[in-house]
Specification:
single chain, alpha+beta, 9-stranded mixed β-sheet, elongated
């Protein structure tokens, strides 16, 4: 249980003394000091008051080690976005910071993607990734950059670098959001998302390239989701998708016409 350390951390982040917080809760300062030093625990009414004061659920206040969260996750919690309260599972992100205590953007190249599937929650693995900064991105959010492969998201070319913003609460994903998705079995993929979590407990993954069929992905399979911010590529977008789509459509029409002819011929033979 992490209540004592969480209480101290949250109090200090608000710039409060023990006396300030005790007065706000209507308790004595020595009593609060005892809570922070594990001398005694709070009764249920005080625990409820503390959770309400910080805008957290009691589960988060007691069970989650808030010291392991990144700065942007803590700010999300302090802003009223406790995913326990919202009915979701808190996802603790392993991250790195620079000497200035600002979040890095970790780079996951193609050759590191297999390792990322097993090492995404391992601090040692994440700290081994290359890092960089983009000064025009919001410092209050967490970003990571992934190199994609394949042609399923053309005209975004294979080999492009996709930067995404970490999504803490998957219920906030909007239909049509482009996202990098990490799954248990398939690793990293880049797709357009239709959010069906509330209705079906899944998301529908759609490729920009119409040659690829959409598919459903259960939330139990998902490990991380990063909302698309931008991509970097040495290649200009190509018009290849439109040509291939047209050829595929023509092929389907030819196939349908062939089946129709065969059906008519069989029908005509029976009638004679």
């Amino acid at each position: 249980m992490y209540f004592a350390s969480n209480l101290r951390l949250l109090r200090k982040r608000k710039g409060l003394t023990q006396g300030d917080l005790a007065a706000a809760l209507g308790i004595k300062r020595p009593t609060l000091n005892n809570y922070e030093n594990k001398v005694s625990g709070p009764p249920l009414d005080v625990l409820t008051s503390l959770a309400d004061y910080f805008g957290l659920s009691m589960d988060t206040l007691v069970r989650v080690d808030l010291s392991k969260l990144t700065n942007f996750q803590l700010k999300d919690l302090e802003g009223g976005n406790d995913v326990y309260v919202r009915g979701s599972r808190l996802r603790v992100l392993t991250s790195t910071v620079g000497p200035d205590n600002e979040e890095n953007i970790e780079l996951v190249p193609e050759k590191a993607k297999a390792g990322y599937l097993t090492g995404f929650s391992d601090p040692e693995y994440i700290s081994s990734l290359p890092v960089f900064r983009l000064p025009f991105l919001d410092r209050e959010k967490k970003y990571r950059t992934f190199q994609i492969s394949g042609d399923s998201m053309l005209p975004v070319p294979s080999g492009a670098w996709i930067t995404g913003e970490f999504i803490l609460d998957w219920h906030t994903i909007k239909d049509g959001d482009a996202c990098v998705v990490l799954t248990r079995d398939d690793g990293i993929s880049f797709k357009i998302i239709q959010n069906e979590i509330k209705e079906k407990g899944s998301v529908k993954c759609v490729s920009l390239n119409p040659l690829y069929e959409p598919y459903d992905l259960a939330v139990e399979e998902i490990r991380e989701i990063w909302r698309f911010v931008h991509y970097i590529s040495p290649e200009l977008p190509q018009g290849k998708v439109e040509v291939e789509h047209l050829m595929r459509s023509i092929s389907h029409i030819q196939s349908d016409v062939g089946e129709l002819k065969e059906h008519l011929l069989k029908g005509g033979g029976t009638g004679g």
